[in-house]
Amino acid sequence: MTMHYRLHSRRALLGAAAALIAAAGSAQMAFAADKLVVGALRFTSHSAGFVALEKGYFKQEGLDVEFRFFQAAAPTAVAVAAGDADFAIAGITGGFINLAGKGAIRAVGGVLHESTGVDGMALLASKKAYEAGLTKPAHLKGKSLALTQFGSTFHYMGAVTAEKFGFSIKDIRLRPLQKVGAMIGALKSGQVDAMFMVPHIAKPLARGGAAKIVGWLRDWHPDYQITALITSTRNIEKRRGLVEKFLRAYARGIADFNRVMLDQKKDPAAVEAMVKTIHKYVYTSRPYAKAARSIKAGAMYLNPGASIDVASVKRQLKWNQSQGFVKKDITLEQVVDTSFVKTN
After folding, report:
1. What CATH number should be reported for the domain whose range is 122-219?
2. 22-37 as b/e, with b when 16 or more CB fall inside 10 Å?
3. CA distances (Å), 211 to each of 63, 113, 175, 188, 242, in order?
4. What is the pTM of this model?
5. Where in the chain is the domain with CATH 3.40.190.10?
6. Which residues of the chain have pLDDT under 70?
7. H-helix or E-strand containing 289?
8. What was the pLDDT predicted at 11?
9. β-strands 227-232, 105-110 pairing
10. pLDDT of residue 71
11. What CATH class does 42-113+225-335 carry?
12. Which of 110, 130, 154, 255 has its CA 20 to 30 A from that of 267?
């Protein structure tokens, strides 16, 4: 009787253990279903996501995130629309707005924003152009400006600069070169007179004598939402919980980045640790000692809580419509979903 009871109990325990193992396996399968691909550039300004990944913030939300890197912002939006990426960091470009107008994608949060007192997008003059007199933004009139594409953020920056200093974007000779690397090469060789660029690229170019910084966009256009977090309309409508998880994790990465990198004198040890983390994704081909200075120089203001400046997005939508890059009937509601984060 006792032996029979023991055998029965042992079988029951083994059965329970097997059930737990099966349940754990099911949980792992469910976790694997939340594998996400995020489109990004190897820019310091995209580093909040890298920080969130390395610190386990995505994992804590049950997300398995993989970054896929691009040479320009516009293709990241295309990747999300095509289903090749689940989220991306992208500019409010004509290409993005057109895809949003077709119902494929929307912005759900903000990333990079100009801010008074924080180095953001720099206006660079080539050495040749600087020596010929392009020493301040007003001198951009009649000069050539490198872009990735028409309707890109670089194009918009040129337009608001021209407007601020009393001339038109038509007074600038635009040179669309498709990739950021091609823009840099054209400026260094003197094939173009100027370009706008993030500080982790602009400052080393100026330091090395290949170009001169002749202005900072924040000084004449501080209320500018440069990039946003975008996702598919399908994710918004069918997987809202997943979008919320992603934004929570990303916002934690933004908080860490802003706290450490925007005041680098406060905690040098924390800065060093974060720069080492970012170096896994930015300037990866350079030795750390060489890359660290550029990464530190590239710290830009990121929207706290992944909040989004809707007024700026609206201005960019209207500008793209005025230039004929997007249809005039595309609405702000098609471009940005304001239900996920704070707006300002």
Report:
1. 3.40.190.10
2. eeeeeeeeeeeebebb
3. 42, 24, 17, 7, 44
4. 0.87
5. 42-113+225-335, 122-219
6. 1-33
7. helix 288-297
8. 54
9. antiparallel
10. 85
11. alpha beta
12. 110
